[in-house]
Amino acid sequence: MPRIPLTWLAEHTTLPEGTGAQQVATDLSRVGLEEEAIFGAQVTGPLVVGRVLELVKEPQKNGKTINWVRVDVGPEHNEDLDDPKDPQPGQERPSRGIICGAHNFVEGDLVVVSLPGTVLPGDFAIAARKTYGHTSDGMICSGDELGLGPDPDGEDGIIVLGRGHAKGLTGEPGDDAIALLGLADEVVEINVTPDRGYCFSMRGVAREYSHATGAAYTDPALAVEVPAASGTGVAVERRDDAPLRGAEGCTRFVALEVTGVDPSAQTPRWMARRLTLAGMRPISLIVDVTNYVMLDLGQPLHAYDAAKLSAPIVVRRARAGEKLTTLDDVERTLDPEDLLITDGADASRVLGLAGVMGGASTEVSASTTDIVLEAATFDPVSVARTARRHRLPSEASKRFERGVDPRLPLIAATRAAQLIVEHGGGTIAREVTDDGTVTDPAPIRLAADAAERLVGIPYTAEQVRGSLEQIGCAVEPDGEDHLVVTPPSWRPDLLLAEDLVEEIARLVGYAEIPSVLPTAPGGRGLTVAQRARRSAQRALAEAGLVEVKVSPFVPADVHDTLRYPADDERRRAVRLLNPLAEDEPLLRTSMLQSLLPTARRNLGRGEESVAIFQRGSVFRASGGGAAPVPAPATRPSEAELAAIAAALPEQTSVLGAVLGGPSGPDSWQGAPEAWGWTDALDLARRAAAAVGAELEVRQREIAPLHPGRGAELRVLTSAGDSVVVGLAGELHPAVIKAFGLPARTAAFELDIEAVIASAPAVVLAAPVPTFPPAKEDFAFVVEESVPASAVEAAILVGAGDLAERVHLFDVFTGEQVGEGRKSLAFAVRLRSAEGTLGAKQIGAVRESIVAAVASAVGGELRA
């Protein structure tokens, strides 16, 4: 995000006296430039100029020599807090005593002194303190201590006025050093939306501040006297054999040569200071000038060492297998879509990635005297793709991919050349190469009442025309009710009439648009499926579970961790080409793949138990192969659309939960029971019942559940088929260990969409019973492989219309029932709508139930 020093902004627009960063941020927010951060003055308090009156070197026992310095800091600040018994030479003039360890100054020098009460960068407060046998009443400052960075002359030690950081500066004891060194600058950092790339410059932000406040604005680009392009300067060729989207990769290329530059010339202090405030590190005069002009005007520049170039400079696409070592010392393999800057008759040497970053082979160095300045207009899409392909964001690419004013290249190159010559000597070549053309923005036809119709509030003709002219548009009438609007060259985002309406609304003021809540249409609301999903989630929340939201990205080894068989459908995962995290490249195929790591994370944060659930999507690869990437210039063909559709993964909504550890807090009644597999089954049934469906439970070995304590969950479809919709039970011990979960942690998972589809469309209200129920218990001994649901179904058949509820309340295995057999105990509630059931009727029903179970599953009534 761009950082805007207020003193720099004030060069292009008028800031009222006393305007601070907070007010500037507020003003800019009115035109859509939101404040990201505010950086106040780096130094506050009494930082003053001092003159060294006396300097006494005092060797210490540790071998170090310190200076006991008497400094005149002006009549207002000269207070002696040192021990009055201490020898005080030169007391004919008032002064302060300060301990200093630096040795790059002598008596008579003017230095920078921070007095007690000063706060330096890093929130470092200065106070008087006793040290080395003296009271040091302040501090003599170095450039690093004031946030100015290393000394430009390479001299270590404190700042001395007249050289280094303070070259060309002077003053008198007591003068304000904050203003002298420019340390009072406040900085506003703003957030720029992708469609407003012109605000990545002081030129653009100053224009927007003028729009917001009505302050006078001076375009810095108009102050540059541009030479006439001769066409006989540095040879340039633009060869783009494979334009993207039909767009030429480079539409304009300016090359301007500067010779005889002093390689030892230093960046002026004011420029280095501005670059630092704007978030860039000063490097050298030539590099700093190119960065300064880019920040000021918005046109990225690149400087080549002319001695290392071989004419001509050629702009072309990369060839397969080509490599480039960029300025960050990384060798990169290039892609045929990359736009390159090369040189030589055969254009074989790659100099840089166009609009992104230059190469190391022609970078300027400490011995460079002749340079070639490049300023070009590159295709935004080409630059954006290259920057992302190589994961190489740069200040240049940020601007090019958002669109740079195509009229700026020659202006920016000229301005940079002038600054280099002004501060480093040399000569600007008369011959300037300006290859390419500038395409004027396309006019837009705008209905005079379009803003009123789209925004919903009336705008006068003066507001419409004035707003558009204010942003630089040329506005001409087209009949009585239309305008022809030509956007300015720096606004490539203005393409449609709606874009112009947005600008009108923005400049007149968003505050003028009232907040009107729309009236909800009658007869609408949540769909049946939406209500059902919410009911299922509410049922789990009411049971004490906590809902979580976890991303669907999972690691590649999760299927092995959960012990899925090799042929398990849940291994059909979708692999992402560009995952958010390298260690999570797959989309989940089961909700437990996300919930189990979340449970581990919660337990690792100090939780003693876990009871969490989530409803979300799971994905299965369709088997249709990779989706084709259609050409961006035209609409995809029907075949391409069909191939894309075939490649889309299968997706459904799943409800899952993980339960482990104590089911509640300890109390005077003792420790609570731990969550278990029966709780998982019960909660799954609650969720299904909340949507009007009933689950059938069948024991089955299914990963990642315990072999003997897991079950698959089924529902009956409208066609009468029984389909699997999930699983429930205790997790496998190996899975519990892998995720560090409490012993016997349980879980369930439901395909909630399938459960909802199985529920009856209309649920008939049960009549209020008139007669009392009859309660009977049965214990049937059956083969161990017989599911309880089969016995329950047989009981319902035997009881017929009198069955009101059947509930399994006990399962027993042991010697008493025989090896390979089990006892299932059911509580059965019977009720008649015609009268109270008598003993004979109940007895007949019992016999019918016993016979039905014996016939269906071979069950015997346990004695």
UniProtKB/TrEMBL annotation:
InterPro entries found in the cross-reference section: aa-tRNA-synth_II/BPL/LPL, B3/B4_tRNA-bd, DNA-bd_dom_put_sf, Fdx_antiC-bd, Fdx_antiC-bd_sf, NA-bd_OB-fold, Phe-tRNA-ligase_IIc_bsu, Phe-tRNA-ligase_IIc_bsu_bact
Binding of Mg(2+), residues: 493, 499, 502-503
Limits of the TRNA-binding domain: 41-172
Main location (coarse class): cytoplasm
Residues spanning the membrane: none
Region (Disordered): 75-97
Cofactor: binding details: Binds 2 magnesium ions per tetramer.
Protein name: Phenylalanine--tRNA ligase beta subunit
Top-rank taxon: Bacteria
EC nos: 6.1.1.20
Subunit relationships: Tetramer of two alpha and two beta subunits.
A molecular-function term among this protein's GO annotations: phenylalanine-tRNA ligase activity
Catalytic class of the enzyme: ligase
Catalyzed chemical reaction(s): tRNA(Phe) + L-phenylalanine + ATP = L-phenylalanyl-tRNA(Phe) + AMP + diphosphate + H(+)
Residues covered by the FDX-ACB domain: 769-862
Domain B5 residues, every copy: 439-515
UniProt cofactor(s): Mg(2+)
Localization (cell): Cytoplasm
Range of residues in the leader sequence: none
Pfam families according to UniProt: B3_4, B5, FDX-ACB, tRNA_synthFbeta
Family, as annotated: Belongs to the phenylalanyl-tRNA synthetase beta subunit family. Type 1 subfamily.
Keywords per UniProt: Aminoacyl-tRNA synthetase, ATP-binding, Cytoplasm, Ligase, Magnesium, Metal-binding, Nucleotide-binding, Protein biosynthesis, RNA-binding, tRNA-binding
Organism: Brachybacterium rhamnosum
Gene from which this protein is expressed: pheT
